[in-house]
Amino acid sequence: MTKDLRRLISEALEEDIGQEDITTNRTVPADARCRVRLWAKQDGILSGIEAFRMVFDRLKADISQWDALSNGDRFADGDDVATFEGDARPVLTAERTAMNILRHLTGIATLTAKYVAAVDGLGCRICDTRKTTPLLRRLEKEAVVHGGGTNHRHTLFNGVLIKENHIAMAGGIYKAVENATAGAHHLMKIEVEVTNLHEFEEAVEAGADAIMLDNMGHDDMREAVQRAKGKKILIEASGNASLDNIRAIAETGIHLISVGALTHSAPAIDLSLIIEQV
Protein backbone atom coordinates (compact mmCIF):
# COMPACT_ATOMS: atom_id res chain seq x y z
CA MET A 1 0.00 0.00 0.00
CA THR A 2 2.87 2.40 0.78
CA LYS A 3 4.27 2.12 -2.76
CA ASP A 4 0.81 2.62 -4.28
CA LEU A 5 0.17 5.55 -1.95
CA ARG A 6 3.41 7.24 -2.93
CA ARG A 7 2.47 6.90 -6.60
CA LEU A 8 -1.02 8.26 -5.94
CA ILE A 9 0.32 11.25 -4.02
CA SER A 10 2.94 11.99 -6.65
CA GLU A 11 0.28 12.04 -9.37
CA ALA A 12 -2.03 14.18 -7.24
CA LEU A 13 0.75 16.71 -6.63
CA GLU A 14 1.67 16.74 -10.31
CA GLU A 15 -1.96 17.42 -11.19
CA ASP A 16 -2.09 20.41 -8.83
CA ILE A 17 1.36 21.91 -9.35
CA GLY A 18 1.89 21.60 -13.10
CA GLN A 19 5.13 23.35 -14.04
CA GLU A 20 5.55 24.97 -10.62
CA ASP A 21 3.75 26.73 -7.76
CA ILE A 22 4.33 30.11 -9.29
CA THR A 23 2.70 32.09 -6.46
CA THR A 24 4.67 30.50 -3.63
CA ASN A 25 7.95 30.51 -5.53
CA ARG A 26 7.62 34.21 -6.32
CA THR A 27 6.52 35.41 -2.87
CA VAL A 28 8.12 33.18 -0.22
CA PRO A 29 11.87 33.16 0.51
CA ALA A 30 13.51 29.84 -0.36
CA ASP A 31 14.95 29.41 3.14
CA ALA A 32 11.76 30.29 5.07
CA ARG A 33 10.48 27.90 7.76
CA CYS A 34 6.93 27.80 9.05
CA ARG A 35 4.89 26.48 11.93
CA VAL A 36 1.65 24.70 10.98
CA ARG A 37 -1.51 24.09 12.96
CA LEU A 38 -4.22 21.84 11.57
CA TRP A 39 -7.40 22.21 13.60
CA ALA A 40 -10.97 20.98 13.44
CA LYS A 41 -13.98 23.17 12.79
CA GLN A 42 -16.41 20.36 13.65
CA ASP A 43 -16.46 17.04 15.51
CA GLY A 44 -15.19 13.98 13.67
CA ILE A 45 -13.22 10.74 13.40
CA LEU A 46 -9.74 11.02 11.87
CA SER A 47 -8.63 9.04 8.83
CA GLY A 48 -5.82 9.56 6.34
CA ILE A 49 -3.23 11.18 8.60
CA GLU A 50 -0.37 9.10 7.13
CA ALA A 51 -1.31 10.19 3.62
CA PHE A 52 -1.57 13.79 4.82
CA ARG A 53 1.98 13.66 6.20
CA MET A 54 3.29 11.84 3.14
CA VAL A 55 2.20 14.66 0.82
CA PHE A 56 4.58 17.06 2.58
CA ASP A 57 7.34 14.46 2.71
CA ARG A 58 7.07 13.88 -1.05
CA LEU A 59 7.95 17.55 -1.58
CA LYS A 60 10.82 17.28 0.92
CA ALA A 61 9.33 19.78 3.36
CA ASP A 62 11.78 18.70 6.10
CA ILE A 63 9.02 18.20 8.67
CA SER A 64 9.94 18.46 12.35
CA GLN A 65 8.12 18.78 15.67
CA TRP A 66 5.40 16.52 14.28
CA ASP A 67 2.51 15.89 16.67
CA ALA A 68 -0.76 14.44 15.40
CA LEU A 69 -3.77 12.39 16.33
CA SER A 70 -3.98 8.81 15.03
CA ASN A 71 -6.42 7.29 12.58
CA GLY A 72 -9.64 6.38 14.36
CA ASP A 73 -9.21 9.07 17.03
CA ARG A 74 -12.18 11.27 17.83
CA PHE A 75 -11.78 15.03 17.84
CA ALA A 76 -14.05 17.92 18.70
CA ASP A 77 -14.65 21.32 17.15
CA GLY A 78 -11.61 23.47 17.96
CA ASP A 79 -9.20 20.59 18.66
CA ASP A 80 -5.74 20.44 17.13
CA VAL A 81 -5.50 17.51 14.73
CA ALA A 82 -1.80 18.02 13.90
CA THR A 83 0.99 20.52 14.48
CA PHE A 84 4.42 20.59 12.88
CA GLU A 85 7.18 22.74 11.42
CA GLY A 86 8.55 22.62 7.90
CA ASP A 87 10.07 24.46 4.98
CA ALA A 88 7.51 27.06 3.96
CA ARG A 89 7.59 26.68 0.19
CA PRO A 90 6.84 22.92 -0.02
CA VAL A 91 4.35 23.18 2.84
CA LEU A 92 2.38 25.86 1.01
CA THR A 93 2.60 23.98 -2.29
CA ALA A 94 1.43 20.69 -0.75
CA GLU A 95 -1.27 22.19 1.46
CA ARG A 96 -4.30 21.77 -0.82
CA THR A 97 -3.52 18.22 -1.92
CA ALA A 98 -2.89 17.12 1.67
CA MET A 99 -6.08 18.75 2.91
CA ASN A 100 -8.22 17.34 0.10
CA ILE A 101 -7.17 13.80 0.97
CA LEU A 102 -7.51 14.21 4.72
CA ARG A 103 -10.87 15.99 4.66
CA HIS A 104 -12.36 13.39 2.32
CA LEU A 105 -11.16 10.34 4.27
CA THR A 106 -12.04 11.86 7.64
CA GLY A 107 -15.50 12.61 6.27
CA ILE A 108 -15.95 8.91 5.42
CA ALA A 109 -14.79 7.79 8.87
CA THR A 110 -17.05 10.32 10.56
CA LEU A 111 -20.14 9.33 8.56
CA THR A 112 -19.42 5.65 9.14
CA ALA A 113 -19.25 6.23 12.89
CA LYS A 114 -22.73 7.78 12.79
CA TYR A 115 -24.15 4.70 11.07
CA VAL A 116 -22.38 2.38 13.49
CA ALA A 117 -23.75 4.32 16.47
CA ALA A 118 -27.26 4.16 15.01
CA VAL A 119 -27.30 0.33 15.21
CA ASP A 120 -25.49 0.03 18.53
CA GLY A 121 -26.55 -2.96 20.59
CA LEU A 122 -28.28 -4.83 17.75
CA GLY A 123 -25.39 -7.06 16.67
CA CYS A 124 -25.55 -5.77 13.11
CA ARG A 125 -22.45 -4.67 11.22
CA ILE A 126 -22.24 -1.64 8.92
CA CYS A 127 -20.36 -2.38 5.72
CA ASP A 128 -19.09 -0.46 2.70
CA THR A 129 -19.50 -1.28 -1.00
CA ARG A 130 -17.44 -0.98 -4.19
CA LYS A 131 -19.02 2.43 -4.86
CA THR A 132 -15.70 4.13 -4.26
CA THR A 133 -13.62 6.82 -5.96
CA PRO A 134 -11.41 5.23 -8.65
CA LEU A 135 -7.87 4.66 -7.33
CA LEU A 136 -8.86 5.72 -3.78
CA ARG A 137 -10.62 2.50 -2.81
CA ARG A 138 -8.02 1.24 -0.34
CA LEU A 139 -7.86 4.54 1.48
CA GLU A 140 -11.64 4.91 1.52
CA LYS A 141 -12.19 1.39 2.80
CA GLU A 142 -9.57 1.99 5.51
CA ALA A 143 -11.52 5.10 6.48
CA VAL A 144 -14.67 2.98 6.90
CA VAL A 145 -12.78 0.73 9.32
CA HIS A 146 -11.44 3.78 11.20
CA GLY A 147 -15.07 4.81 11.68
CA GLY A 148 -15.97 1.43 13.18
CA GLY A 149 -17.42 -0.16 10.04
CA THR A 150 -16.38 -3.28 8.16
CA ASN A 151 -15.30 -3.91 4.58
CA HIS A 152 -17.13 -5.76 1.85
CA ARG A 153 -14.95 -7.31 -0.87
CA HIS A 154 -12.19 -5.00 -2.04
CA THR A 155 -12.07 -6.24 -5.63
CA LEU A 156 -14.01 -8.47 -7.99
CA PHE A 157 -11.39 -11.14 -7.28
CA ASN A 158 -12.10 -11.26 -3.52
CA GLY A 159 -15.38 -13.15 -3.66
CA VAL A 160 -18.41 -14.25 -5.64
CA LEU A 161 -21.38 -11.88 -5.54
CA ILE A 162 -24.07 -12.97 -7.98
CA LYS A 163 -26.32 -10.03 -8.84
CA GLU A 164 -29.39 -9.50 -11.00
CA ASN A 165 -27.56 -9.27 -14.32
CA HIS A 166 -25.41 -12.33 -13.58
CA ILE A 167 -28.57 -14.32 -12.79
CA ALA A 168 -30.22 -13.19 -16.01
CA MET A 169 -27.22 -14.15 -18.13
CA ALA A 170 -26.66 -17.47 -16.34
CA GLY A 171 -30.28 -18.56 -16.73
CA GLY A 172 -31.47 -18.31 -13.13
CA ILE A 173 -30.27 -18.45 -9.53
CA TYR A 174 -29.70 -22.23 -9.45
CA LYS A 175 -27.59 -22.19 -12.59
CA ALA A 176 -25.63 -19.11 -11.49
CA VAL A 177 -24.74 -20.67 -8.12
CA GLU A 178 -23.94 -24.00 -9.78
CA ASN A 179 -21.59 -22.32 -12.23
CA ALA A 180 -19.93 -20.24 -9.51
CA THR A 181 -19.45 -23.27 -7.26
CA ALA A 182 -17.83 -25.22 -10.07
CA GLY A 183 -15.53 -22.34 -10.97
CA ALA A 184 -14.39 -21.21 -7.50
CA HIS A 185 -12.05 -22.90 -5.03
CA HIS A 186 -13.46 -24.59 -1.92
CA LEU A 187 -12.67 -21.66 0.40
CA MET A 188 -14.52 -19.07 -1.69
CA LYS A 189 -17.93 -18.06 -0.34
CA ILE A 190 -20.81 -17.34 -2.69
CA GLU A 191 -23.32 -14.54 -2.13
CA VAL A 192 -26.53 -14.05 -4.12
CA GLU A 193 -28.55 -10.85 -4.45
CA VAL A 194 -32.34 -11.33 -4.24
CA THR A 195 -35.27 -8.96 -4.45
CA ASN A 196 -38.10 -11.04 -2.95
CA LEU A 197 -38.79 -14.07 -0.74
CA HIS A 198 -39.25 -16.41 -3.69
CA GLU A 199 -35.75 -15.60 -4.93
CA PHE A 200 -34.52 -15.88 -1.34
CA GLU A 201 -35.78 -19.47 -1.15
CA GLU A 202 -34.13 -20.25 -4.46
CA ALA A 203 -30.81 -18.91 -3.18
CA VAL A 204 -31.09 -20.95 0.03
CA GLU A 205 -31.88 -24.14 -1.87
CA ALA A 206 -29.08 -23.45 -4.34
CA GLY A 207 -26.58 -23.42 -1.47
CA ALA A 208 -25.64 -19.75 -1.18
CA ASP A 209 -23.33 -18.90 1.74
CA ALA A 210 -24.65 -15.34 1.97
CA ILE A 211 -27.77 -13.66 0.63
CA MET A 212 -28.16 -9.95 -0.07
CA LEU A 213 -31.68 -8.61 0.36
CA ASP A 214 -31.88 -5.83 -2.22
CA ASN A 215 -34.40 -3.08 -1.46
CA MET A 216 -36.73 -5.47 0.36
CA GLY A 217 -39.34 -4.25 2.84
CA HIS A 218 -38.81 -4.65 6.57
CA ASP A 219 -41.48 -7.35 6.92
CA ASP A 220 -39.89 -9.42 4.16
CA MET A 221 -36.47 -8.93 5.75
CA ARG A 222 -37.81 -10.29 9.06
CA GLU A 223 -39.34 -13.24 7.26
CA ALA A 224 -36.08 -13.98 5.46
CA VAL A 225 -34.20 -13.93 8.77
CA GLN A 226 -36.72 -16.36 10.26
CA ARG A 227 -36.46 -18.72 7.28
CA ALA A 228 -32.67 -18.71 7.54
CA LYS A 229 -32.63 -19.70 11.23
CA GLY A 230 -30.67 -22.87 11.82
CA LYS A 231 -28.80 -22.42 8.55
CA LYS A 232 -25.27 -21.04 8.24
CA ILE A 233 -26.28 -18.22 5.95
CA LEU A 234 -25.21 -14.60 6.38
CA ILE A 235 -28.04 -12.18 5.61
CA GLU A 236 -27.12 -8.78 4.19
CA ALA A 237 -29.46 -5.86 3.54
CA SER A 238 -28.67 -3.40 0.77
CA GLY A 239 -30.36 -0.46 -0.92
CA ASN A 240 -31.58 2.96 0.20
CA ALA A 241 -30.13 2.73 3.71
CA SER A 242 -29.90 6.09 5.49
CA LEU A 243 -29.35 7.37 9.01
CA ASP A 244 -33.12 7.77 9.28
CA ASN A 245 -33.94 4.11 8.59
CA ILE A 246 -30.76 2.18 9.40
CA ARG A 247 -31.82 1.15 12.91
CA ALA A 248 -35.19 -0.11 11.70
CA ILE A 249 -33.39 -2.22 9.09
CA ALA A 250 -31.03 -3.63 11.71
CA GLU A 251 -33.96 -4.46 14.01
CA THR A 252 -35.19 -6.99 11.44
CA GLY A 253 -32.36 -9.26 12.63
CA ILE A 254 -30.15 -9.17 9.54
CA HIS A 255 -26.41 -9.55 10.10
CA LEU A 256 -24.98 -6.87 7.84
CA ILE A 257 -26.09 -3.67 6.14
CA SER A 258 -24.06 -2.42 3.17
CA VAL A 259 -24.21 1.34 2.69
CA GLY A 260 -22.85 2.86 -0.53
CA ALA A 261 -23.22 6.37 0.88
CA LEU A 262 -20.31 5.79 3.27
CA THR A 263 -17.87 6.28 0.41
CA HIS A 264 -19.80 7.91 -2.43
CA SER A 265 -21.67 10.59 -0.45
CA ALA A 266 -19.74 11.36 2.74
CA PRO A 267 -19.31 15.14 3.15
CA ALA A 268 -15.74 16.33 3.64
CA ILE A 269 -14.89 17.30 7.19
CA ASP A 270 -14.26 21.00 7.85
CA LEU A 271 -10.59 21.38 8.81
CA SER A 272 -8.42 24.48 8.72
CA LEU A 273 -4.66 24.70 8.23
CA ILE A 274 -2.95 27.79 9.61
CA ILE A 275 0.65 28.64 8.72
CA GLU A 276 2.87 31.21 10.40
CA GLN A 277 6.56 32.14 10.26
CA VAL A 278 8.96 30.47 12.64
Structural summary, described in words:
The chain is α/β, with parallel strands linked by helices and 278 residues long. The chain is built from 11 helices and 12 strands. It folds into 2 domains: 2-115 and 266-277, Quinolinate phosphoribosyl transferase, N-terminal domain (Aldehyde Oxidoreductase, domain 3); 121-264, TIM Barrel, CATH 3.20.20. It has a 6-stranded parallel beta sheet with strand order 6-11-10-9-8-7. It has a 4-stranded antiparallel beta sheet with strand order 3-5-1-12, covered by helices on one side. The radius of gyration is 23 Å and the shape is elongated.
Question: What structural keywords apply?
Answer:
elongated, TIM Barrel, 278 residues, four-stranded antiparallel β-sheet, Aldehyde Oxidoreductase, domain 3, 11 helices, alpha/beta, six-stranded parallel β-sheet, 2 domains
CATH level-1 class of the largest domain: Alpha Beta
Q: What class would the helix/strand composition place it in?
A: alpha/beta
The CATH homologous superfamily of the largest domain is named Aldolase class I
Number of contiguous helices: 11
Terminal Cα span: 34 Å
Order of helices and strands: HHEEHEEEHEHEHHEHEHEHEHE
Main-sheet strand order equals: 6-11-10-9-8-7
What's the main sheet like?
6 strands, parallel
- Please, what is the average pLDDT? 97
E-strand count: 12
CATH architecture of the largest domain: Alpha-Beta Barrel
Strand content: 15-25%
User: What is the domain total for the residues?
Assistant: 2
Structural shape: elongated
Oligomer category: single chain
Question: Radius of gyration over alpha carbons?
Answer: 23 Å
